[in-house]
Design brief:
The complex is a heterodimer of chains A (about 180) and B (about 900). Chain A is mainly alpha-helical and about 180 residues long. Chain A is built from 8 helices and 1 strand. In chain B, the strands form 3 sheets. Chain B has a 6-stranded antiparallel beta sheet with strand order 2-3-4-5-7-6, covered by helices on one side. In chain B, strands 8-10-11 form a 3-stranded antiparallel beta sheet. Chain B is elongated.
Chain lengths: ~180, ~900
């Protein structure tokens, strides 16, 4: 991941914490099951990015550039969170047991293992075809539309649709093997 | 998996997908994979996945976020430090807040935990900032911090006062609060913000949901999560970086939205929006769905609809007019036109609540009369209207201006007197609190003064008003008018209270200080002494009047060069004040006076060590980043400058500048002052370009802060002129002095002595350029002007004559020169310290003149005087 100004750790860090807070808000909305009536989650994420993109503290070549970085940040953040949760669940020696507040949410939830498997499979895909890994980041982690993602990666929508289908299928089978 | 293999997989996968028949697919797959069983199994698995709905990747990231970052909280009964968790209170982006009970000694607290602290240093830093802010801010309107620590899994937490209440806006709606009540609650919130600012903390996220009202109706300011510690060592050289936080733009100041540097005025803006919402139950602008940049341009566009136009609660028309002004001034898009501080906002809120005229209000007669009627309708109804109008003017001007003449102005005026006794460039002017529209103020004062005459039936009140009016005139530099009014006040006090009264003592001291302003130091000293003796005979030694008189005497003595005496009396005053054991701020002020006296006496070490003491006291009271601290540092800079340690002076000046820039923003009269000292320090290091740049910046700041024709601008222009003169750029210097003369003429009128001072500088530059005729042609009317305005014996008259004397000597007109130089010498020698530069110049000139005209005895006399002084100086 490259930020416009290299070594600008604080900016990157700001980006992370901003996205984190936005994701938590998003999670909160999802949990309250209100998102359908208030904001669709993708729009919410997009809105966060709009706000960030206008922030002069971070400079990016273009909005597209920004969104690519943000998508990567989002992935890293969620996967890190999954790893932490998993470690704690497996007896990390914490003095406080954190509990999930709403069990119904837990049932439809994605498991940590699943997400970590996705992350690893994505790394493998990136080794073969980096553009497709980026596509997954943009479409899945960043919730971008097909059109937007196609523009972002500089491919036609038809190509993108085909790539999406094959990459998705491959990732899914790879994750099933790991899981 | 390499790229080639992946290409192959995709190709086979896509072809297989196009085959709808399952058997066709299977046989194609076998054939295409050509005996590579692994490949075949992989693609078969892909096809299998492809036919399933709802893979993880189809779910959308929100589900993942919901799971990975889902709300988790310590369950009831969890122990955190000494506390036991009761229940979850809430959660936000930063973490969760739980209600908890202290196990050993009881009591309920709110515990805030930072979830996922590992995620980023930024979040940890912010959490710590909030914790530190709460620890520092011990104020009834801000939740107290009790305890803080980190859990074993690395989660930081802190325990704070549990505030049980509802948001400000909900409270007002629920209780259907009156406008009066709303404004009162708002004022409480302002006070908490003011307190934070006094500790150099900017809240940066003020909105109704962060302001709670408890059951007993008291207000608490919450969530210092993105507060800014002004002196935080963040290595960002004073720049307040944008906080990337998804704050709702509705309450953010425009400069916050675009990521400009922000100062205390950002909080003033947010408070303005909160007030708007309280008054109207709606937001001033609809900024939803706008990006910050778009939102900012909306804010800079049309002003919002006045609150009065959709006010919901009942208030009179006059009150609404005031609320409009108050609210819109607080939330002005241009921060230079906002209230410059929360204090200023609070002052006007108080004026509103007390039915007094607002400081933000244009001075209009009808408005003032209206105010008076509202406040004193019973009295007003029995008073004749004619009397009323005049009385209103004086009463309210007195009230308004004495409130405005807060310590900042008093301090500014004191500092000025030290700085430039010889040129008397006293402005009375903190542009923030001082009179903005001097001329109109003067007109009003004049009418007010006339009307006070009619209050003869109540001598003590009349005397008090006269006294106050006089002090305002004095602050405005109208010394003649002040003199007359003080005299009237004194006369009435003598008649009413008798000669032996504290009131008479107060008058004597005030007139004494006026004499010092008029450069009549001897008279001033005598009056201040009389006042002090009288006050001491009537009042306790630590009584404020006695202390004030002592400080005034100390100043007087210092200014006439009696340094030892000045130091003795100021030291005694400091001791007396210490004996009272309170009012550490006042003590610091008295110590500052003492430091100034030592400074004037040339005891730089003593002065510096007292200033360092004062600095420490101020830091203990107001923190590291307060303008008071900047003032002390600036004084230390002045000392280093005098000692010739220009690099140290530069460093200190920069430090003071940085503090004021952070506190007031880059564009404030305060930063302009610091820039001026910085410019001086740079100049003496021969860094001319940087020096000019600093001074020009100072000038630009003043111009934008107070307008191009304000006396403060004249002062900055004057300073720039001095510096150009030091670089021998006399023509440019003259242009600057001419400009300050024009400004003074515009503000004070032709005949004011400030105009004469500036013109005298112009003339001096002409002399420096060798244009002796022109210089003389300008000096002569200047001297007449000084004589008319201040008297023939005034030091300013003397200085101008000395300068003219030198001009004439240089022109070779020794007879004319002798007259001027000698006259000037006599005027100054009678009043000023023998070592001041003007007297030295006069002696040098006289020696040369006498020698040139063969008056060797006289020349020898002055030579001796010069030698004696040099001798003195070496001992």
């Amino acid at each position: 991941m490259q930020l416009e100004n290299n070594n600008d750790r604080p900016s990157l860090d700001d980006l992370f914490s901003a996205i984190y807070e936005e994701l938590r808000r998003l999670a909160f909305v999802v949990r309250r099951n209100e998102y359908a009536v208030t904001l669709n989650p993708t729009a919410l994420v997009n809105e966060a990015w709009l706000k960030l993109a206008d922030s002069p503290a971070l400079t990016f070549e273009s909005p597209l550039h920004f969104k690519r970085i943000a998508a990567r940040a989002m992935r890293q953040l969620l996967v890190d969170a999954a790893r932490r949760r998993l470690a704690t669940k497996r007896g990390g020696g914490a003095d406080v047991q954190w509990v999930t507040l709403d069990e119904s949410v837990h049932q439809l939830a994605v498991s940590e293992i699943e997400l970590i498997a996705l992350d690893e499979a994505l790394d493998e895909l990136a080794a073969a075809e980096p553009r497709q890994a980026e596509m997954i980041e943009c479409r899945f982690f960043a919730g971008q539309s097909v059109a937007e993602t196609a523009e972002l990666l500089g491919v036609s929508e038809a190509t993108l649709a085909r790539d999406w289908r094959s990459a998705k299928a491959w990732l899914a089978q790879s994750m099933r093997q790991t899981g | 998996m390499d790229a080639e293999r992946w290409q192959r997989i995709q190709r086979i996968f896509n072809v297989a997908l196009s085959l709808s028949d399952a058997e066709d697919r299977e046989s194609y797959l076998r054939e295409a994979c050509d005996g590579d069983g692994e490949l075949e199994a992989e693609i078969a698995a892909m096809l299998d996945e492809d036919s399933r709905p709802d893979s993880l990747l189809d779910q959308g990231v929100e589900q993942v976020a919901g799971s990975m970052l889902g709300a988790s909280a310590p369950p009831p009964g969890t122990r955190i430090g000494h506390y036991s968790v009761k229940r979850l209170l809430g959660e936000g982006g930063m973490g969760v807040v739980c209600l908890a009970e202290r196990e050993d000694i009881g009591g309920t607290v709110a515990i805030k935990l930072l979830r996922d602290a590992w995620l980023s240093p930024t979040r940890q830093r912010r959490f710590q900032t909030e914790q530190r802010a709460l620890a520092q801010l011990n104020h009834p309107g801000i939740a107290h911090l009790y305890d803080a620590d980190t859990l074993q899994d690395g989660t930081p937490w802190f325990a704070m006062e549990y505030v049980q209440g509802i948001t400000l806006t909900d409270y007002c709606r629920k209780h259907n609060c009156s406008i009066e009540r709303r404004v009162n609650l708002f004022r409480q919130a302002c006070d908490a913000v003011r307190f934070a600012h006094a500790h150099a903390i900017i809240h940066r996220d003020i909105k109704p949901s962060n302001i709670l009202v408890t059951d007993d109706g008291s207000v608490k300011l919450l969530d210092f999560g993105i507060a800014k510690q002004l002196d935080a060592l963040d290595g960002s050289s004073g720049k307040t970086r944008t906080v990337l936080r998804m704050m709702t733009p509705a309450y953010a100041a425009p400069e916050q939205l675009v990521g400009d540097e922000i100062g205390v005025q950002a909080d003033v803006y947010s408070l303005g929006v909160v007030l708007y919402e309280l008054l109207t139950d709606r937001l001033p602008f609809d900024l939803s769905n706008l990006s910050p940049l778009e939102a900012s341009s909306v804010l800079h566009g049309d002003a919002p609809v006045k609150p009065s136009e959709h006010g919901t609660a009942s208030a009179g028309r006059a009150q609404w007019a005031d609320l409009d002004v108050l609210c819109l001034k607080a939330m002005h898009a241009d921060r230079a036109r906002r209230y410059s501080s929360v204090e200023a906002l609070i002052r006007d809120v108080d004026h509103y609540l007390g039915s007094e005229p607002l400081e933000a209000r244009p001075d209009r007669l009808a408005y003032r009369v209206g105010k008076f009627l509202h406040r004193h309708w019973q009295v007003a109804s029995v008073l004749a209207a004619a009397v009323l109008v005049g009385a209103v003017l004086s009463v309210f001007f007195t009230i308004r201006l004495s409130a405005a003449l807060d310590s900042a102005v008093a301090e500014a005026s004191r500092t000025k007197r030290v700085q430039q006794f010889m040129t008397n460039l006293f402005q009375g002017g903190d542009a923030l609190a001082g009179p903005r529209e001097d001329i109109r103020v003067i007109e009003m004062l004049e009418r007010g003064a006339e009307t006070v005459e009619t209050l003869a039936s109540d001598p003590p009140v009349q005397a008090e008003l006269l006294h106050n009016l006089a002090s305002i005139y004095q602050q405005l530099g109208k010394l003649g008018a002040a003199d007359a009014l003080y005299a009237q006040s004194l006369e009435r006090r003598r008649d009413y209270f008798g000669e032996e009264s504290a009131e008479v003592a107060e008058s004597l001291v005030a007139i004494g200080i006026l004499r010092i302003d008029q450069a009549r130091l001897e008279d001033g000293e005598a009056l201040v002494r009389d006042g002090l003796v009288l006050a001491e005979s009537l009042l306790a030694p630590e009584h404020p009047t006695v202390i004030a008189a002592s400080l005034a005497l100390g100043q007087t003595l210092r200014e006439r060069g009696a340094h030892d005496e000045a130091i003795a009396i100021l030291a005694q005053t400091v001791e007396r004040q210490a004996a009272t054991g309170n009012a550490s701020m006042d003590q610091a002020a008295a110590l500052s006076e003492l430091a100034k006296a030592h400074y004037a006496a040339g005891h730089y070490d003593d002065s510096a060590s007292i200033y360092r003491d004062v600095l420490q006291r101020h830091r203990a009271i107001v923190g590291n980043a307060h303008p008071l601290v900047a003032g002390d540092i600036a004084s230390l800079a002045a000392i280093e400058q005098d000692l010739g340690y220009y690099d140290k002076a530069e460093m200190l000046a920069r430090e003071a500048l940085a503090i004021n820039e952070r506190y007031y923003g880059v564009e404030s009269p305060h930063t302009a002052d610091n820039l001026t000292s910085l410019g001086r320090a740079l100049l003496y290091q021969q860094k001319y370009e940087e020096a000019n740049e600093a001074l020009e910046r100072a000038l630009a700041v003043q111009e934008s802060a107070v307008g191009p024709s304000h006396p403060l601008v004249a002062e900055a222009v004057n300073e720039l002129g001095n510096i150009l003169a030091m670089q021998d750029r006399f023509a440019e210097a003259a242009a600057n002095f001419q400009r300050s003369a024009d400004i003074y003429r515009n503000v004070h009128g032709d005949r004011h002595y400030f105009v004469a001072i500036a013109l005298s500088n112009v003339a001096y530059m002409q002399m420096k350029q060798g244009d002796y005729d022109q210089a003389e042609a300008l000096f002569r009317p200047v001297i007449r002007q000084f004589t008319d305005a201040l008297g023939a014996d005034n030091v300013n008259t003397g200085i101008a004559r000395i300068k003219l004397g030198r001009t004439l000597r240089l022109a070779g007109r020794y007879a004319d020169a002798e007259i001027e130089s000698f006259a000037g010498y006599e005027i100054l020698a009678a009043q000023a310290s023998p070592s001041i530069s003007f007297l030295r110049a006069a002696r040098d000139d006289l020696v040369l003149i006498y020698e040139a005209t063969g008056q060797t005895e006289k020349a020898a006399g002055f030579r001796q005087e010069i030698a004696a002084l040099d001798n003195d100086a070496t001992h």
